[in-house]
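Running log. JK asked me to keep both predictions on one page so they can be read side by side. First protein, sequence followed by its C-alpha cells:
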Amino acid sequence: MKSVQGENSDLFINGFKIHIQTEDWGPEKRVLISRVFKDGSVHKTFKLAYEKIEKADIEIQRKKALDKLHQTVIEWSRTEIQ
C-alpha cells in the first residue's frame, strides 16, 4: 500500500491568504492530515484515521476520502476564518 497524492488550495478569505494542504501520511501512520495555513503559519490541523475510511486499503477509497476531507476543510475555512 502506498500513499495517495495530496491536494493543495490557495484561497483569500476575509482578507487573509489561506493555504490548505491535505496529504496521506501512508500505511505506517495510517492517517490523512489536512492543515490550514493562515498568513504562512499553521492555523488548524484536521486528522482522519484510516479506520474511519471504508476499505482504506484500497487507494481509490483513500483518494476519495482525501478529496472529501480537503473540500470539507475548504468549507470550514470559508465560515471560520476571521
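And the second, directly underneath as requested:
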Amino acid sequence: MSTIAESLARGSGAAAPGFAIVTVGCEKNEVDSDRMRARLLAAGYREVDDPAEADVCLVNTCGFLAEATGESIEAVLWAAEEEPAVVMCGCVPSRYGAELAAELPEVDAFLGVDEEDRVVEVVEGLVGAASAPSEGPSGRELDEPFDPRACRTLGSSVAFVKIAEGCSRRCSFCAIPLIRGPLRSREADDIIAEARALAEGGAREIVLIAQDTSAWGRDLPGRPSLASLLWRLSEALLDLGTWIRVLYVQPEGVDDELICAIASAPGIVPYLDLPLQHVSRRLLASMGRTGDRESFTRLVETLRARIPGLTLRTTVICGYPDETDEEHRQLLDFLAEAAFDYVAVFPFSAEEGTRAATLPGQIDEEVKLARTQAVRDLTEEIGFKRAAERVGGVVEAIIDAETPDDADGAFVAHGAFQAPETDGVIHLAGEGLAVGERVRLELTDAWCFDFEGEVRHG
C-alpha cells in the first residue's frame, strides 16, 4: 500500500474495499491512472499491489496500435483470473465501444477516456461504498475538498502533467483522434497550480505531455503559446529548483519563441522530442504532415546552434504504404547525418479506422520489419556512440530510486539528457544519498544508453 493510501485508510478503516490498478501504455495513461487512483483514495478506498488481493481491479488500456490493444486485452484476462471485479478503462473501451461487452464477458464495467471522473461511482456500484476519509495525503484534517492532483507523482522524483487532451491533427496513420477526440487544452493557471503542488510535494522534475504539446493553447482564448506556458512555469517553480521538460513537440510547432524559452528560461531542460516520422515529402504529405529532408536538416542545425547542450529525440515509421527503397535510403541517410541522441523506430501498423490502413501499396510485412531493423541498427549505433562520448563529463542528475536488495546502497538517477523511463539511467553508489536529491555526477562508464556515475562535490 502506498504512503498516500495508508494516510487515507486511517480515516476509513481497515475494512475499506481494496482496489488495484494495472496500466498499459505511455505516460499519458499513467497520468490518467494516477487521477483515478487519487479519486478512489479520496473516497476512502485502499490501494493494494496485487489484483488477487483486490476487491476491484482497474485495467487502464492502450489502443494506439493493434499490438498495444492485444497487450491490454491480455492484461484484462490476467486480472480476471485473480477474481476481483474488473473495470476496463481508457483507450480500448473508447475505441471499440459497445462491442467489447460481448467479446469480454470477464469485464464487469467499462470506463472510457472521458469518463475517469465517474470512477468512484463505477467502483461503488461493483463493490460498495467506502467511508470518506477524515484525513488527506498529508495526514491533516480535510477542511476542503480533496484535490486529486496532489497524488499525481509517478515515483517520488518525477511527475507527468498532461497539459491537453485529444488531438486535432489528422495524421493518416494515427487512431488517437478517434479515441480521444479533438484538442482540448487545459488552462495555464490550472497547469501551473498542479505543477506547483507536485513540486512542493517532492517532484524534482515536471514533464509536460499531451498528444501534441506544441498545439497547446490554440483552442484557448487569446491562443497562448507553449513558450508562454514554459516561461510562466519557469517562474512559478524557480524557488523550488524543479526541472521542467516538454515532450511530443511537433516539428512545425518549433518557432523562435519556443527555442528562446527552452534555451533561456530557468529550469527548462535542453531536451526536445520531435516526432518527424519520415523525411520523404511525398510520404509525409500522404501522412497528412509537412516537411522534408532539407527542412528537417535546417531545423536540427538551428536547434543545436541556439540551444546549448541540446538533446534530441525523434520517432520514425518504416514501411508506410508505397514507401520505396529509395525513400527508405533517404531516411537512413538523414538519420546518419542528423545523429539524434535517441530514435524510436516503429514498423507501420495499419490501424482500423485510419486512412492509411486503406491506402494502396501496403508493404509486405517482412519488408517492413527488415527496414525497421535496418533503421534501429543504425540509430542504436549512433546513439551508443553519442552516449559513450559523454563518459568523463560531469552532469547534474536527479536520484530516482534506490536499487532493491542492494547491500551497497546503490541508486539509479537520470540527467537532463535523459527523459525519465525512456532514455536510460545512471547507476551510482554512495552514502548519505536520498531519492529526489539533485547531485553532480561524473559519468565513468557507459553501456548502450545506461551509465555509471560517481558523485562529485563542489
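Observation for JK regarding the second prediction: The CA atoms of residues 279 and 294 lie 8 Å apart.
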